[in-house]
Amino acid sequence: MGCPPFTRDARTAQMLFVLLLGISTTVRSERLLCDGEEQANFTGPLCNATRDEIGTCWPESEAGRTVATPCPERFNGVRYDSSKSVIRECLANGTWAQRSNYSLCKPIIDAKPNSQHYKIALIVNYLGHCISLAALITAFGFFWWLRRSIRCLRNAIHWHLVTTFILRNAAWLLLQIIDLSTQERNEPWCRVVITVFNYFQVTNFFWMFVEGCYLHTAIVMTYSTDKLRKSIFVCIGWCIPAPIIIVWAMVKLFYEDEKCWFGKTEGKYIDYIYQGPIILVLLVNFIFLFNIVRILMTKLRASTTSETIQYRKAVKATLVLLPLLGITYMLFFVNPGEDPVSQVIFIYVNSFLMSFQGFFVSVFYCFLNGEVRSALRKRWNRWMDNHRLQARVTRAMSIPTSPTRISFHSFKRTTSV
Q1: How many CB atoms lie within 10 A of CB 150?
Q2: Gap between the Cα atoms of 149 and 379, Å rounded
Q3: Looking at the predicted structure, is the pLDDT value of residue 314 above 90?
Q4: What is the largest CA-CA distance in the chain?
Q5: Which of 20, 16, 109 is nearest to 343 (CA)?
């Protein structure tokens, strides 16, 4: 007996390898058909012909056997090595094992120019996230070490933003271990990973909003930042994203509990539960940036500096604010069109900006931060003074003295130099 016809409401899995996991990935559904199989002459219990969730046809098989069938040649626009096999066990009671093993199915990298660019962009993504993570951890260490020397609300907000970038980058790297087989099994742990990643992603954008809100309040509204309360910002950055992700996870669990909750199915907009607030934050931060640059230009025109220097300062301030407020993510909404050159530029620019944003935030708001550098310089000078003093004390104590001379006199005379 052949496989039953592929039902209309059957769902397909999402694309295995998502290059740019920025705000969301989109899964295209497609119908997979397989040729019917002739009925085999078996005695005893049989596993009926069926299809799995991916759409692979499993012919009628004898109970107690492990059945192998070629990997699909193409799935969601990606070609796979059909010389490898998908494995599924026909249990002794005549029922199929719940899941098929797709671990041997590997994608074939096409020799097309764009495929090569995607491969390079993927390397850029890994490299950028690793470099950013190292820089962010270093910046976090500086903020923690100097927390008493640079105690102010602005630096505390920077510290929280750096923390969200660390958690988000670490979760992104953890996300890359989820393969097709894991997605097909819809493992609980991979659903937890994607949920945690989305939470850190939302908190990251909300702390960008906090940065924009602080700057807009201080520069545009000329409100005293001493009156701003840190607890309010902490609530905005860490607490508000929690119910958003909880609602998203509950809706996913009841209405789209498949493929580790990656992407979204056509006709369903569940992911906009958390993507909507992210888009809103970006739009508000764009308004903040516009007002901040407008006020900055007004103040620069009122100064006595030359026009060239004024514009240079304005451009510098704008470039510094772009990664802080997350405005670079708005490039993800740009459609590169069908032009191959535009698509390649889009791939590389987005890969670079997305993966290296944490690095830029670390450089601009920690390593080049005047207060951080001043505090580090003081700590270094204090350490050098203590080191020199200890060396002098050691040298003084090592000078031979006569029995009638008080050794403390030698120590006092030496240290007074």
Answers
A1: 21
A2: 10
A3: no
A4: 114
A5: 20
Which contiguous run of DSSP H or E holds residue 133? helix 113-145
Question: What number of CA atoms fall less than 13 Å from residue 402's CA on the CB side?
Answer: 2
Report the residue count for the chain. Answer: 417
- Rounded-to-integer distance, Cα 297 and Cα 310, Å: 8
**pLDDT greater than 50 at residue 406:** no
56, 62, 290, 319 from 94: Cα distances, Å: 19, 8, 67, 65
User: What's this model's pTM, rounded to 2 decimal places?
Assistant: 0.64
Task: Choose between 77 and 120: higher pLDDT.
Answer: 120
Distance separating alpha carbons of residues 70 and 275, to the nearest angstrom: 38
Using pLDDT thresholds of 50, 70 and 90, give the confidence band for residue 401. Answer: low
Q: Among the listed ranges 6-15, 35-44, 212-221, 396-405, which one has the minimum average pLDDT value?
A: 6-15
Distance (Å) of CA 115 to CA 118, 147, 194:
5, 47, 26
CA gap 161, 213 in Å, rounded: 13
Any long-range contacts for 292-300 (C-beta under 8 Å, 24+ apart)? Answer: 292/215, 292/216, 292/219, 292/220, 292/317, 292/321, 293/317, 293/318, 293/321, 295/219, 295/220, 296/219
Beta strands 85-89; 50-51: pairing state:
unpaired
In the three-class reduction of DSSP (H, G, I as helix; E, B as strand; rest coil), residue 87 is classed as strand
